[in-house]
Write a structure and sequence with these properties.
The protein is an alpha/beta fold and about 475 residues long. Helix content is about 40%, strand content about 20%. Helix 9 links the parallel strand 13 and strand 14. Bound molecules: NADPH dihydro-nicotinamide-adenine-dinucleotide phosphate.
Length: about 475
């Protein structure tokens, strides 16, 4: 029998006031019903914010090492349940078992990292200008943090928002994406079991506009961290900054990988294929454009097409090379972009069709696609597709590559494949992005470095991850103490 799962508000699993639920089905096979989740109302979201506000002082007053111990226990509980969580994530979001396992491990590591950070939390000591005086800073929590997360990394992104928020003494209201409430619920279970006091973390499922609307506007919310689409992100920013909440947004992208003549082409194909087709192209750091020097263009195109055609597609739980799209909407959006690319005059060399047959008809599968002869002004070269679709654009020089790379509304991640140190350094200096990589895929970033973009990719307020996350969730207080 399919289970119905509750919200978690003020330390209790509870039903929404609407009495309504929504279904969560596997994108690998929509016949598989994972569970039913609460279709919460604004009233439920308000109850969550009030619980978080009521718990804020006590949690902030708890010695940071003690908060750290709860995060450490959470990390251990996640690790103990790693195999089960990997399957849950794969079943719910569609990614392959290998991809899901890597993501669960990331959540384990994030909680361990911020457990240590909690112990280390401190300010700076400065030289006072008067005798008999101490001058220093301390970091104080903001209060209540509202965290709104997407479906594409449904445990890692919640982990990298929740862990630093809690480590620094904030309480949390958390709305997971409606496509992936189950793996998020499992994370909440682990935090609860680790000993988090009631009200410190509140999990509310339901519509983005209703639950998210309250979370971004309620006067008791002090900070909002959002990852998702540019359209919703812009709306969140306008709503939340009205009363000067601290806001952080991570949104879309159109990441380029440049391939120069000196590149080892085997390495270049590995780098571009991993970035373009990994996690079914559903990463904000996915490689969407390959900007390839005309002297190696034909050879590169032949090899990347061969690589795309080798990719084995199937249900995430069977651990193929590539799982399905996370939803029918995502699949349809990718298919529409493929059709648009052909209409715009690009040459579709492979893929781009819905993939079905062999028991796959009830899943959201698509063949990885490669377009050649793409012009930089085409929409497929400018708009986020969020699927396994690679546009290969010819470039004539490094200057040309940099101009094309930067001539989009986004700026998250960019890579260059080259053996020329001068080219590498110029690219790193001139790429308008938050993450620049040399001889590396555009995807993947370690948990202890700042993550975020420029232009339409990010609010350009605060970065996520590492020490940057500690800065986002705290305010420094300057202390003068004369004696
Ligand atoms: P959304 O931006 O709609 O959703 C992201 C999160 O915001 C979800 O939790 C969603 O809830 C919530 N939300 C939706 N509307 C509001 C609102 N008005 N106020 C507050 N929160 C809200 O992304 P989608 O899931 O619809 O994906 C659409 C596209 O966004 C993708 O195709 C991709 O291009 C881009 N995207 C980018 C991501 C990235 O990492 N940069 C991640 C995910 C998507 P709910 O799920 O209930 O709607």
């Amino acid at each position: 029998m399919t289970q119905t799962y509750g919200n978690y508000i003020d330390g209790e699993w509870s039903e929404a006031t609407t009495g309504e639920t929504f279904e969560n089905r596997s994108p690998s096979n929509t016949d598989e019903l994972i569970g039913r989740y609460q279709r919460s109302s604004e009233e439920d979201a308000v109850a969550a914010v009030e619980a978080a506000a009521a718990a804020a002082d006590e949690w902030a007053d708890m010695p940071a090492p003690e908060r750290g111990r709860i995060l450490e226990r959470t990390s251990r509980l996640l690790a103990d349940r790693k195999d089960e969580l990997t399957e849950t994530l794969s079943r719910e979001e569609g990614k392959t078992l290998d991809e899901a396992s890597g993501e669960v491990q990331r959540a384990v590591d994030i909680f361990q990292y911020y457990a240590a950070k909690a112990r280390d939390l401190g300010g700076t000591v400065k030289s006072p200008s008067s005798p008999d005086q101490n001058l220093y800073t301390v970091k104080e929590p903001l209060g209540v943090a509202a965290l709104i997360t997407p479906w594409n990394y449904p445990i890692a992104i919640p982990a990298w928002k929740i862990a630093p928020a809690l480590a620094t003494g904030n309480t949390v209201v958390f709305k997971p994406a409606s496509l992936t409430p189950e793996i998020a619920r499992n994370l909440v279970e682990c935090l609860n079991e680790a000993g988090l006091p009631d009200g410190v973390l509140n999990y509310v499922t339901g519509s983005g506009s209703e639950v998210g609307g309250v979370f971004t506007t309620h006067e008791d919310v002090d900070a909002v961290s959002f990852t998702g689409s540019a359209k919703v992100g812009d709306h969140v920013y306008q709503s939340a900054t009205g009363d000067q909440k601290r806001v952080q947004l991570e949104m879309g992208s159109k990441n380029p990988a440049v391939v120069m003549p000196s590149a080892d082409l085997d390495e270049a194909v590995d780098i571009v294929a991993a970035g373009a087709f990994g996690v079914t192209g559903q990463a904000c750091t996915a490689t969407s454009r390959a900007l390839v020097h005309e002297s190696v263009y034909d050879e590169f195109v032949d090899r990347i097409v061969d690589r795309a055609e080798e990719i084995e597609i199937g249900p995430g739980m069977e651990n193929p090379d590539m799982g399905p799209h996370a939803s029918r909407d995502e699949l349809e959006s990718t298919l529409e972009y493929v059709s648009l690319g052909s209409d715009e005059g690009a040459t579709l060399l492979t893929g781009g069709e819905r993939f079905s047959g062999d028991g796959l008809d009830d899943g959201h599968y698509v063949e990885p696609a490669v377009f050649a002869d793409v012009e930089p002004e085409m929409r497929i070269a400018r708009e986020e597709i969020f699927g396994p679709v690679l546009s290969v654009i010819p470039i004539s020089s490094l200057d040309d590559a940099i101009e094309v790379a930067n001539d989009v509304d986004f700026g998250l991640s960019a890579s260059i494949v080259t053996d020329d140190l001068r080219e590498a350094n110029r690219f790193v200096e001139e790429a308008e992005v938050g993450v620049a990589k040399v001889n590396e895929k555009t995807t993947g970033l370690e948990l202890h470095v700042p993550f975020g973009g420029v232009k339409g990719s990010s609010s350009e307020t605060f970065r996520e991850q590492g020490d940057a996350a500690i800065d986002f969730y705290t305010l420094p207080k300057t202390v003068y103490m004369s004696y």
